[in-house]
Amino acid sequence: MAERPKTDGTAPDSRGATEGRGADIAASRKPVAKRARSRSGTVIWQLCILVALIAGMKLLNATSGNLVMPSPGAVFWRSVEMWSDRTMPRALGESFTVLGLGFVLAATTGILIGILLGGFPFLGRVLDPFVNAVNATPSAAFIPLIIVWFGLYTEAKVILVWLAAVFPILINTTAGIANANKDLIEMAQSFGAPRRTLFWQVMVPDALPSILSGLRIGAAICIVGTVIAELTMAQSGLGGLMIKAGNRFQMDRYFAVVLVMMALGSLITIALRLAERQFGRWRVDLRDGG
């Protein structure tokens, strides 16, 4: 009598299914692990660059003195002092008010005008030379005119920040609307979508990544515009602190303000980049079969 083959109690089909699921899980974990390694490597390199910059400051301070480059320790303790006596928070609040108002105004007008120029090609062609002409003119060239019209205080600074930041937002929005996915537009038209629905539910959402990219660029320019406004008009905020420290050759104080500006710009850019990733995930690209 032939012996029965020994089994472990698992049918061949179920064993194959289990192995298949295990392979799928392992394959799905590989991209996650790869992204984690990439993020870790990025952070390590960033820390190395930061250490190198601090070491360079220390070396330059040791060889050339405090007037050329303050020591990292002096900048740190000066920063602590300025935050403790409320000098830095007060200046940061003044600058953030100008920056925030200017950015909101630039984002609102830039997106609305960009949607119009991108959605109505004839209007875009008519106004394109004028948009490019004003965009090519440095914002500082309009400072005397802004001072005459709006004075030297908050209103004039907000207008200067708006003028500096509105065109990157407007141009990116126009390009995003004008280059909206033609396959999606034709699909919506084939289902009888009216012009208004086509515009607001197909073209504008498809242009959202371009709009968010323009907002990110505009936010960075807003910081530059805020500093220029505070340097050339009534000196206040972070720009006012920076120019006063520079005039008195207080380089530790000067660098403390510069570090706050850099941190502010980085935080705003990171926040907008996260928003760009979040809202851009769903974008359908028919060329990839998505």
UniProtKB/TrEMBL annotation:
Q: How does it sit in the membrane?
A: Multi-pass membrane protein
Q: What family is this protein classified in?
A: Belongs to the binding-protein-dependent transport system permease family.
Could you tell me which residue ranges the ABC transmembrane type-1 domain spans?
Answer: 92-276
Q: Which Pfam families match?
A: BPD_transp_1
Cell location: Cell membrane
Keyword list (alphabetical) reads: Cell membrane, Membrane, Transmembrane, Transmembrane helix, Transport
Entry-linked InterPro entries: MetI-like
Annotated segments matching region Disordered: 1-33
**Name recorded for this polypeptide:** ABC transporter permease
TM helices/strands, residue ranges: 43-60, 98-123, 130-153, 159-180, 215-234, 254-275
Major place of localization?
membrane
